[in-house]
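Dear colleagues,

As part of the handover before I leave the project, I'm documenting each prediction I ran so the next person doesn't have to rerun anything. This entry is a single chain, and its sequence is reproduced below.
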Amino acid sequence: MSAAAPERPALPLDRFRWITEPLAYWAAETPGRIAATDPFAVFSFADFQEAVDRLAEDFEGRGLEAGDRVLIVMENCLAGAVAMLAAARLNAWAVPLNARLTAREIDAIRDHCRPRVLVYTAGVSPEARGHAERHGAGPLTALGLLNALVAIDRETTPEPASDDPARQVAALIYTTGTTGAPKGVMLTHDNLLFIAGRSSRRREVSTRDRVYAVLPISHVFGLSSVFLGTLYQGARLDLVGRFDPHEVARALAEEDVTVFQGVPQMFARLMSMLDAGAPDLPAPRLRYISAGGSPLEPALKARVEELWGRPLHNGYGMTETSPTISTTLPRRPAEDDSTGPSLPDVEVRIVSAEGDALPRGEVGEIWARGRMVMKGYYRDQEQTAAAVTPEGWFRTGDLGRMTEEGELYIVGRLKELIIRSGFNVYPPEVEAVVASHPDVALAAVIGRPVPGNEEVVAFVQPVPQKTLDLEALRAYVEPRLAPYKRPADYIALEELPAGSTGKPLKHKLRDRL
């Protein structure tokens, strides 16, 4: 561990109002303690605060205003974290994007959110550098050795700003949505800090913790729970750009990592190292592990717990809920696939198809309400109204049940969402790309469960009188979709089963699998 002051008690809930305040607090209280690292630099809290101040001044000099958007094409690193907080300093919106998205995906989001400033974490990501070169970016000298690039777009308009943290957007997190088009989830400062404070309190994070941060902070789980939750309690954050099971195993064995949060597939890949002959995966300081982002299989949970002698915690949430709705309790861990009770000050309701509350134990759609519910979808009032009731309930589209003790279990999904390695994959987007091939008449995409994960499978119907080369189709699709969205299998059928309207009958395709 780095030199540190004695462990301090958890800060009170709602201690901070703006996402820049936790860093400012700890920079004043313990400026010399290590706050965050990446493979190229180590920041004390004072270093981190100085970098944020310097970059905010640079942004302001480039014309960034409150309500403008700052697009950050990134993988986990200090440059990306600094850029997010620098944008927030000016009441601009951070729009973090995974650099491994394709050019088509990045550009569609850029066109939708119309950023004033675009930042690329080129020092840690060749993909980010490639996007920067396409967009004509130049050096961002304010970040110095953190090696980022920047581009400016003067043709944009700021959104109205607010001095209320419950109304002022801090981050715009994109999902592609059920329509296949980019859908920006507006999360306020209050949304993110509500989860950062409560989730870190539930994990019992303290100044003595060292958090291994490989979950992308460009996604809401990594952003609010891992990044801001760690910062909230003054713990140390080790930012890691890409998941490598061998590197994770080394860090757990040799570093003083105490907290590791991941998606189930990460834990499955670590277990596969044992299957391949690794003698052991020691983690002498590890005290808290959790999985989220996709269903946690009981067999995987049991195996991880046997290995490390610690409960593998589970949780549930969505981008639109910042994201956490429920998590299991450290002092009362679940023995099965429960996602635990709801966080403090979060309401959960199980409802019928008509929207009526159901008794405990019955299966219905999960609705959630609280300060974690998004402000709305950017530039899409219709979708916002469909997702959030006038009383503030967010309709998750997921099926669940709740026990008499308040434990939430996820039963299934009303939506066709596929969760691949913790990332959301929306079939309409994949179908649109597959069907754009000139030899494909119709495409239908579904998920196929595999151990610890879910795969994308594409059923395709060839254009009449055409012979469809499936390997050529795969080669066509790959550069047009991020890796986690690409189908694992393509299955050609002379004719897809369809209803009277011509819409593919996906339940029949599932039966074939």
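The two ends are 49 Å apart (CA to CA). The chain has a mean pLDDT of 93.

All the best with the project,
I.
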